[in-house]
Amino acid sequence: MGTLINVAAIIVATILGMTFKRGLSEKIQKAMIFAIGLGLFVLSIGWFLSDFIVIENDTLSTRFDLLLLISLVVGTLIGTWIDIDDKINNFALKVEKKYNLPPMAKGFVTATLIFSVGAMSITGAIQDGLGQGMTILLVKSTLDFFTGMILASTLGIGVMFSAVVVLIYQGGITILASVLNDYASPDIIATISMIGNIILIAIAFNFMEIKKVKIANLLPALIMPVIYLLVIQLF
Question: DSSP H helical segments within the chain, as ranges?
Fold first, then answer.
């Protein structure tokens, strides 16, 4: 249910954003995109640190340091080798050309990565699947609504199509969590969330035009901690 609310929020936000697009000058649009990037950067760091830093014996320490580094390096290597980013962009461009839609590639890819990658998307879907409520997804839906409205005003209808990915991705995690709730250990959830928030920080870099990053090529890093921790549990 939480994912359905999230999807509805993105669709409505896109419609509103495109409706009021004419009222926003290019200067204002760029300023808003930068503001989103800045906010995303700060929030992602906070979410990351909440999982990364722990208190043991009244002392601050970090966890999974090496695993995070290895996951990012190996995941990025795989993603760059496959070139996921270009494949996603090419797919969106083909859809745009085939159905004669307005430019949508950037909107689709950007919105998909923002709405689908990160701690709230993963932990919220798992929480919902485990029957622990949908508070996280409701908060995420609120954030996605305002973000989606601003994105749609600058990037167009492609933002709406990201709702399909959110439905499949978050909905899939929710269903998986409800079936495999005995195997979703806190360590797996925490490490996936941390990797997701690191990727969100990279997205913020793109928004603020600090550095152009091929975000989708980082996505395989999300799988690395799961593989590692499952192997550790088996042996």
Answer: 2-19, 26-52, 65-82, 84-98, 105-116, 119-129, 135-155, 158-179, 186-207, 224-234
pTM: 0.78
d(C-alpha 157, C-alpha 164), whole Å: 13
- Which class for 47: exposed (0-12), middle (13-18), buried (19 or more C-beta within 10 A)? buried
Residue pLDDT, tens place only, 141-156:
988 888 888 888 878 8
**Contact residues for 24 (Cβ-Cβ < 8 A; gap 6+):** 32, 153, 154
Q: What is the pLDDT of residues 192-210, one digit of tens each?
A: 888 888 988 988 898 888 9
Q: How many angstroms separate the CA atoms of 152 and 16, rounded?
A: 8
Q: Would you call 214 exposed, middle or buried from its count of C-beta atoms within 10 A (0-12, 13-18, 19+)?
A: middle
